[in-house]
Design a protein that fits this description.
mainly alpha
Length: 238
């Protein structure tokens, strides 16, 4: 599929960042992963609030919503902003470094707490039944699926959501690393572009007398003949 933006925009994108295709694909993947993770974590939070209003680990379901929501907003907004508003002129790489670092830095503790405090750790099999086949929901059977079906639904949703979140963290770290490289190149190019102007300033924006005083003395041949020394051509033939 050919891009629909203008040739000038494509030229600017290629000129400023030859790897913009790779970054655009990574941003698209992050947007899809963030969208799926957002729906799943929001669903898990809603079910937990419905059946276990005072559940101690409900915060572990809505905590991942912060990095997921930031990624879902930042990646498509910056991509379309560069294409439509800036006509291919890139955003300062410092913005990408800051936001991608924020996303994966929040995502790591989010996935740690979401996995560590997930409802799926409470799953357990049915230990005993009555002779007629019914299951008593007390004692060791209390957290079994027939007695607590909601935590099994939430647990499955949490597992799927954390898979999307883990992939999102990996791709966001990749974008963060690429943004750091771009920032380093941007600073290096900025220093190189300022160097000729600085040299010109040092060369011309100076007091002529101070500049002349700093120069080494010019060579001037002696006008007098020294005994035992070879006379200079100036002294000999003048």
């Amino acid at each position: 599929m050919r891009p629909t933006f203008s040739a000038e925009t494509r030229r600017r994108l290629q000129e400023h960042d030859p790897k913009w295709h790779v970054k655009a694909i990574l941003q698209l993947i992050c947007t899809i992963l963030a969208f799926n993770a957002l729906i799943l974590f929001a669903d898990a939070t809603a079910i937990t609030n419905k059946y276990y209003v005072t559940a101690y680990n409900n915060w572990s379901d809505w905590m991942p919503l912060f990095p997921v929501l930031i990624s879902l907003i930042y990646n498509p907004v910056t991509f379309f902003l560069v294409l439509l508003r800036r006509r291919g002129k890139p955003i300062h790489p410092g913005w990408h470094v800051g936001f991608h670092f924020l996303i994966w830095a929040l995502g790591i503790p989010s996935i740690v707490f979401s996995v560590g405090w997930g409802w799926f750790w409470w799953w357990q099999p049915v230990y005993y039944r009555y002779r007629n086949g019914s299951i008593p929901c007390r004692g060791y059977n209390f957290w079994s699926e027939p007695c607590q079906p909601a935590i099994y639904t939430v647990g499955r949703i949490e597992i799927a959501a954390n898979v999307f979140l883990g992939l999102l963290i990996i791709f966001e770290f990749t974008l963060f690393f690429m943004a750091c490289v771009a920032l380093h190149k941007h600073r290096k190019a900025t220093r190189q572009s300022r160097m000729p102007a600085r040299l010109s300033q040092l060369q011309y924006n100076r007091d002529p007398e101070a500049h002349a005083a700093e120069q080494p003395p010019a060579y001037a041949p002696s006008q007098e003949h020294t005994p035992g020394a070879t006379p200079s051509p100036v002294t000999k033939y003048s």
